[in-house]
Design a protein that fits this description.
With about 240 residues, the chain is an alpha/beta fold. Helices cover about 35% and strands about 25% of the residues. The strands form 2 sheets. It has a 6-stranded mixed sheet, sandwiched between helices. A 4-stranded antiparallel sheet has the order 2-1-4-5, with helices on one face. Bound molecules: adenosine-5'-diphosphate (ADP) and magnesium ion. Adenosine-5'-diphosphate (ADP) binds next to α1.
Length: about 240
């Protein structure tokens, strides 16, 4: 479970988030939408413990992540997988080495176990057989899949996706969206998808939240958002034109 209680955050005297309250039960998938620069990625960084709120509390697995010890914060972070827009693969390493990196670096997994886990994660994202490929030789969608396999390497209970489909063509987007849903169902992970892509909003989320002028609006449903007579409806319909 993830909980934000009355969270406010400013940068350089400019308030980005004002008294944000949000509870995400275990296993739920939510989308966060809103104009560029409204604070969506900031919310993810607050949940990762990379930013400290000016006021309010961020609870992950019931613990206030800004009050726990550094060691505990690291343990909690290991249970959070994150996929950035760029996928952020290391081009000097092949696919298997990329997926193995957190296992060795963060989890200190013995070498004989690493190969098994890497194979499992590649299977999960349907990239079996690509172990020896260089990331540079992969398509955008394939790079995303490998980024996802790497994010999943430590069996996270929470997955954060920051613009996972931005810049992908519709077929690859659909692929990634299906994968997000399948992983959450298969592995029961709690997921937050930050996106402004309509297909991703509609296809991955149980609930959609919008950040608007620093506040988090009450959620909208993917079933009704397209016709909603609200700022949600305006946002998604505007996005289509
Ligand atoms: N570390 C930082 N220092 C100063 N300003 C920041 C920092 N991180 C984000 N901001 C500002 O906060 C606002 C929200 O950023 P962000 O959360 O990245 O927006 P988005 O909704 O597009 O993901 C932006 O105006 C951005 O410039
Ligand atoms: Mg962002």
């Amino acid at each position: 479970m993830i909980e934000l209680r009355n969270v406010s955050k400013s940068f350089d005297g400019r308030q980005i988030l004002k008294n944000v309250n949000l509870t995400i039960p275990t296993g739920e998938r939510i989308a966060i939408i809103g104009a560029s620069g409204c604070g969506k990625s900031t919310m993810l960084r607050l949940i990762m413990g990379l930013h400290k709120p000016d006021s309010g509390e961020v609870l992950v697995f019931g613990e206030n992540i800004h009050q726990v010890s550094k060691a505990r914060l690291l343990e909690i972070r290991l249970k959070i997988g994150i996929l950035f827009q760029s996928a952020a693969l290391f081009d000097s390493m092949n696919v298997a080495e990329n997926v193995a990196f957190p296992l060795i670096e963060n989890f200190h997994m013995p070498a004989h176990k690493v190969a098994t886990v890497v194979a499992k994660k590649l299977e999960l994202v349907e990239m079996t057989g690509f172990d020896k490929n260089d990331p540079a030789d992969l398509s955008g969608g394939q790079r995303k899949r490998i980024g996802l396999a790497r994010a999943l390497s430590g069996d996270p209970e929470i997955m954060l996706y920051d613009e996972p489909t931005t810049g992908l063509d519709p077929i690859l987007s659909t692929n990634i969206e299906d994968l997000i849903v399948r992983l959450s169902r298969q592995l029961k992970v709690t997921s937050i998808v930050v996106t402004h892509q309509i297909s991703t909003i509609l296809r991955t989320a149980d609930k959609i939240y919008m950040v608007n002028q620093g506040t988090l609006l009450p959620p909208e449903s993917p079933d009704t958002i397209m016709t909603a007579d609200s700022i949600y409806g305006e946002f998604v319909r505007g996005g289509l034109s």
